[in-house]
């Protein structure tokens, strides 16, 4: 079933990087967009102001995705402001890596809290405000398919968990016409992972297309999944990684 262009969207971790590109793309496509930020208040306010100045509608909300109460409250606030939610994009994530013998349980728990539990919390909260035809997308990682260096086991595990969660939740949400999918980027040019950074050459050597993705390319795949042409795509994990996992 085709759905209209989304009118009300919520993006976690939307102030910078891939999240900001997604917020801009959804706004450009006509959606009112609420997004969360944890510590990047200035960037979040600037992004919301940019969208408002262009004639769109944006709402920047402070909420740490590891805090289930704060995340749920932000989703409820966005739904109250917009009247409903049509789209949820789970973008917030952490990437803590380190040797097995020194990796702390605090970092393990933080990784699961943000990368896995927060996704479930957000889906559960947003689904209460969605009508038939809603769209949910999570930003996973190609590292669920391939982790070619030491120290990334916990991060890879967290992103692999999203694959199973997406498949399972597709069954829960399908009767309501709500789709849920997992976008799995590879190396993407952000301030945390610059295309000319010290690890870039090693990453590019593992890829068929030897470059970082642009955040706008990830946003484009998200736009497709929340748009009217993707009504039969659900429970899928879609790589956009330049052949990193090929």
Textual characterization of the structure:
With 246 residues, the chain is α/β, with parallel strands linked by helices. The chain is 41% helix and 14% strand. It is built from seven helices and seven strands; from the N terminus they run βαβαβαβαβαβααβ. The protein has helices spanning 17-28, 41-53, 68-82, 105-127, 153-173, 200-204, 215-226, and strands at 8-11, 32-37, 58-62, 87-90, 135-139, 179-185, 237-240. A seven-stranded parallel sheet has the order 3-2-1-4-5-6-7, sandwiched between helices. The longest helix has 23 residues, at 105-127. The protein is globular and about 45 Å long. The model has no long low-confidence stretch (mean pLDDT 95).
Short description:
By secondary structure, this protein is α/β, with parallel strands linked by helices. The chain has helices at residues 17-28, 41-53, 68-82, 105-127, 153-173, 200-204, 215-226; strands spanning 8-11, 32-37, 58-62, 87-90, 135-139, 179-185, 237-240.
How many beta-strand runs? 7
Tell me roughly what share of residues is in helical segments. Answer: 40-55%
| Helix-strand sequence | EHEHEHEHEHEHHE
Number of helices: 7
The major sheet is characterized as: 7 strands, parallel
Strand content: 5-15%
Structural class of the helices, strands and pairings? alpha/beta
What is the general shape? globular
Mean pLDDT: 95
Gyration radius from CA atoms, angstroms: 17 Å
Distance between the termini: 32 Å
Indicate the multimeric state. Answer: single chain
Poorly predicted sequence stretches spanning 5 or more consecutive residues: none
Provide the spatial order of strands within the biggest beta sheet: 3-2-1-4-5-6-7
């Amino acid at each position: 079933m085709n759905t209209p262009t989304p009118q009300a969207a919520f993006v976690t971790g939307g102030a910078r990087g891939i999240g900001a590109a997604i917020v801009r793309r959804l706004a450009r496509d006509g959606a009112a967009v609420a997004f969360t930020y944890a510590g990047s208040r200035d960037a979040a306010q600037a992004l919301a102001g940019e969208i408002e100045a262009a004639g769109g509608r944006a709402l920047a909300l402070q909420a740490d995705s590891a805090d289930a109460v704060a995340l749920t409250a932000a989703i409820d606030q966005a739904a109250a402001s917009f009247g409903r939610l049509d789209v949820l994009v789970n973008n917030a994530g952490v990437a803590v890596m380190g040797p097995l013998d020194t990796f702390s349980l605090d970092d393990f728990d933080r990784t699961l809290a943000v990368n896995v539990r927060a996704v479930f919390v957000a889906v559960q909260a947003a689904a209460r405000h969605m009508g038939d035809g809603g769209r949910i997308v999570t930003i996973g990682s190609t590292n669920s398919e391939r982790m070619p260096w030491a120290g990334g086991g916990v991060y890879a595990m967290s992103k692999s968990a999203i694959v199973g969660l997406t498949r399972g939740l597709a069954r829960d949400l399908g009767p309501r016409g709500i789709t849920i999918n997992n976008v799995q980027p590879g190396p993407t040019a952000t301030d945390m992972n610059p295309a000319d950074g010290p690890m870039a050459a090693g990453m590019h050597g593992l890829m068929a297309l030897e470059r970082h993705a642009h955040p706008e390319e990830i946003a484009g795949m998200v736009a497709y999944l929340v748009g009217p042409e993707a009504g039969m795509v659900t429970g899928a994990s879609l790589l956009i990684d330049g052949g990193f996992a090929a």
